[in-house]
Amino acid sequence: MERIRCSGVWKIFGQNGNRVIDNWDQYRDLSKTELLKKTGCVVGVRDVSFSVTSGEIFVIMGLSGSGKSTLLRCINRLHEPTRGRVYIDGEDITDVSQKTLLDIRRRKIAMVFQHFALLPHRRVIDNVAYGLEIQGVDKRTRYARAAEVLELVGLKGWERQYPHELSGGMQQRMGLARALAPDPEILLMDEAFSALDPLIRRQMQEEFVKLLKVVQKTIVFVTHDLHEALRIATRIAIMRAGAFEQIGTPAEIVLKPKTKYISDFVRDLPKAQFVTARDIMDPPSKWAVRDDQTGEQVINKMNAEGIWHAYVVDSHRRICGVVDYRSVIQGNGNSVLDYLSRDFPVQDQNTFLEKLIDVAARTSVPIAVIDENKRLVGVVSRERLLETLAS
Ligand SMILES: Nc1ncnc2c1ncn2[C@@H]1O[C@H](COP(=O)(O)OP(=O)(O)OP(=O)(O)O)[C@@H](O)[C@H]1O
């Protein structure tokens, strides 16, 4: 379900921003400084359109000054877009009164910043309950909820400490707990993990992704760190000079950069750490045969697809085993089950390329890829692995 939609959003800082937009062709080739000199304006965001669906982690990534924070702030109108529309759950929030806007923000949207305002003289649990207090939630309910979200972010046992008694990483969790307490549907996060040192940061990223599997939220996450973006994103938008240069899944960004700018960005990345089985697998239909088929039918299928192995699945798409071309063609069994071998490599669809390479090195059978219900969802062949590595 679509939660957020930005349509042709511009943010120009300075007077007469609309005039700059109307005459953009005239200004597009100017540097930032030249534009400022000529018009007194600075481009924050330039004609950006995208939508984010429920459950997504949409990461806006780009170098300093590319417009990430400005765009994020346009989503909840902390910055008033100069032009364009922003829809939250289908409602055009660029067109609502200040009162309605405040109400939408309070009910649906929370923001998490790199540095958030702690209340130093209040205990951790008071800090987390504070947002609910402002909303007029009664004391018992807000403290029960605060305790619940503190447990969720791994801070159970720290409720009665003061913020300064917590490490940076724990304070960041506290910030997250505070944002989660009112149960917002949308979280806007601006460099939320940037203050953490690398090891803790990585741990936070992993926990964050895990946490989001438990609490379904829609996230827009700003970062200047490409590794962070690739690790946590469902989709990434790379910004450059106020505009989107490319939007795509981490694998699309890494494997199919659309412009030289992006390919320069991703050139030295260890691809194998960001591409998963899901990104490169062939569809299961190419490799799967049903357990009630005859040997002849299976050979026909293997000939047609040009494959040496076929995975045999039951009516629930669960794998029964694998058959290889030679044994089926040389054999005289009736059913494909007569040739079944249960010795095959199988991996979860989220397995990273680096692990798949290890697995492929130990077997000649293509790797079966399964989902959380253990159903065959694809196959990664040796050819596909080599192709990906060479790309
Ligand atoms: N309040 C403002 N007034 C004038 N110009 C601004 C304002 N806020 C941002 N800008 C300009 O808009 C452009 C985009 O800034 P923004 O802060 O969104 O970039 P960013 O990608 O978030 O950068 P960083 O990673 O450094 O925070 C920059 O050129 C900046 O100078």
UniProtKB/TrEMBL annotation:
Q: Which domain of life is it from?
A: Bacteria
**Gene Ontology terms, cellular component aspect?**
membrane
GO terms (molecular function) for this protein are: ATP binding; ATP hydrolysis activity
Question: Which first-to-last residue range defines the signal peptide?
Answer: none
Q: Which CDD domains match?
A: ABC_Pro_Gly_Betaine
Q: Which UniProt keywords apply?
A: Amino-acid transport, ATP-binding, CBS domain, Nucleotide-binding, Transport
Instruction: Tell me the ranges covered by the ABC transporter domain, including all copies.
Output: 25-266
Biological process GO terms, please?
amino acid transport; glycine betaine transport; response to osmotic stress
Q: Where is the CBS domain?
A: 281-339
Q: Which InterPro entries match?
A: AAA+_ATPase, ABC_osmolyte_uptake_ATP-bind, ABC_transporter-like_ATP-bd, ABC_transporter-like_CS, CBS_dom, CBS_dom_sf, Gly-betaine_transp_ATP-bd, P-loop_NTPase
Q: Which PANTHER family match?
A: GLYCINE BETAINE/PROLINE BETAINE TRANSPORT SYSTEM ATP-BINDING PROTEIN PROV (PTHR43869), GLYCINE BETAINE_PROLINE BETAINE TRANSPORT SYSTEM ATP-BINDING PROTEIN PROV (PTHR43869:SF1)
Q: Which family does it belong to?
A: Belongs to the ABC transporter superfamily.
Recorded hits in NCBIfam families, A to Z, give: proV
Name this polypeptide is given: Glycine betaine/proline transport system ATP-binding protein
Q: What is the lineage of its organism?
A: Bacteria, Pseudomonadati, Thermodesulfobacteriota, Syntrophobacteria, Syntrophobacterales
